[in-house]
Amino acid sequence: MSATATAHRVFNFSAGPAALPLPVLQQVQEEVLCYPGAGASVMELSHRGKVFVEIAEDAEATLRRLLGISDDYAVLFLQGGAVLQFSMIPANLLRGSGKTAQYLVTGSWSTKAIKEAQKEGDVSIAYSGKESNFNHVPPSGDYSVPDDAAYLYYCSNETIQGVQFGSEPQCPASVPLVCDSSSDFLSRPLAVDKYGILYACAQKNAGPAGVTVVVIRKDLIERGSDSLPGYLNYKNHAEANSMWNTPPTFAIYVLGKVAHWLADDIGGLAAMEKANREKAGLLYDIIDANPGFYTGHAKADCRSQMNVTFNLPSDELQAKFISEAAEHDLDSLKGHRSVGGIRASIYNAMPREGVETLASFMKDFVSKNG
Amino acid sequence: MSATATAHRVFNFSAGPAALPLPVLQQVQEEVLCYPGAGASVMELSHRGKVFVEIAEDAEATLRRLLGISDDYAVLFLQGGAVLQFSMIPANLLRGSGKTAQYLVTGSWSTKAIKEAQKEGDVSIAYSGKESNFNHVPPSGDYSVPDDAAYLYYCSNETIQGVQFGSEPQCPASVPLVCDSSSDFLSRPLAVDKYGILYACAQKNAGPAGVTVVVIRKDLIERGSDSLPGYLNYKNHAEANSMWNTPPTFAIYVLGKVAHWLADDIGGLAAMEKANREKAGLLYDIIDANPGFYTGHAKADCRSQMNVTFNLPSDELQAKFISEAAEHDLDSLKGHRSVGGIRASIYNAMPREGVETLASFMKDFVSKNG
Asked: Which structural domains are found in chain A, ordered by start?
């Protein structure tokens, strides 16, 4: 890799699509004209051909290894993003069940999810953080879930508000736990056997936009009615190993490379979690040290390790912060249009050096403007 | 581009995902670490950021220019492939309409499409080629469509059978014409204003798997009910310029490059059609010259310019053909598992040299085995 080709890369704090590991991009660059042994780009390969089937199987196997996913679960590679899962989950598990689905509403994404679920059947809000502007997730005991619920749905990390569940919420054993893990997937080890469905669009932590990983307990796959639009029925995808129709082949290929980077270069999810906690700590320490200047959005015990959200004393200072940060190659720090402020998304692929540079900039900025 | 990087590329006759233009892949390779001016890979860019919005707008503008798409139409970039369109079209245009949708069933893809439509409302088969094993498309006059149909659906090119409509089927002016153009999109000029919906998954002629282009007349966008799963409602995507949720950014980027290649390098769709007709002619001429050995599947006046399908006298000879072809770098010639035989997919990006090499091999093979 020539120095010139990488020299002008910035530190990209985008919330998603987001930074990818540089070694992954370098491998993609090497292989993009000719995947080894294939005589063609991965983009050009039949999804049913031997070479691509091996790529997809390897991506799945690497995810299974990283997360310790047992044979009780299928791993699906789907299109349509988290938003299509907002509909597919209730279409398969709620519609016609006679049951009620329970939702923990902790930010923008779970709010969107419940709106789609309401089209499919009875839905109940087990907990909502709306009144406190979604600055926390509920402690166990602050809500209850009936034993006969269709499922309990939550979003493990709310990208926009920057609040994250430290561990799985309490849930009766009889109720499938369903998790939108889009923005903290693969950032830490998980006890997958606690979940009914664990899903994540790839473009935060796991790969490029266009593929969504759905880890689904096999007994739940059968619940979808044959009257569902075919693409929305998990059964179709599971029976065909995600090849019911042409899958997003290139996105799966990159996702597989990211999984290998985690397993082989980083050393697995426990090591990744340690690095992520350290990175987040660098920024939260500065926020805590300057309480009159940087105001964190999330309550301290609910802070996201992935999306660090905070406000400055004025809109003018926020604009100045973003503009001066960009001069230091610190990019995409503007908060989501629905919340405002500053958001530093520091997913797996954000190098520690980028976070250190931001931390240093934040210290300098407060000393000059505080 | 070094010679070694391209030296071992084969001629890839895959039906999809399929060959992409080499200049497009070379540009992707150059930009994959750093899109010019962005400091990051296109895969890493926020879909709402200035750089990617310009990429998406340019892709749309180039498609509009190539096909002459007027402002009466929206151009959407969606996920889920043609298969999700099989459901979205009737979900938006048929469900609750009190009307009947009419289908021309001319091969495997229109057969799949009608099955999904039957879940959404009343469907009628205006024409079926099933009894003749889908070896033709209907001549005008062989079917009729009521003036009050919800829409008339057809597939302009059946990839598996290798039959293609030479022009749009007759359709009353009051009835929206809906076309699955997945495997001949951008292969020739089209009169877009004849269509209600013209759609294509990208992975045959227009780009990598993972993005589907939907060209939809604006009055049809409003027909979807708010009770539809949000992703399935065209309105959501149209109002948000395909950014209702995160679109498949990298696939859109490559699709834009393919569109530029067509416009700038090839000289537009009329020039592309001329080249495609010449390529197909090279193969059909050999089939016609050896009627006892090569048996074309499609009737001569319905032959696809994209997928040349034919059988050899025995399974043994077919296996030998495929195996020896591979030794000449002629790859992925095996027919679809549901039809068998040989299929040479010669989309836009298949260079004439590849078709000439195949033609030469076919001549040689018949002389040795005929």
From this structure: 26-265 (3.40.640.10), 268-369 (3.90.1150.10)
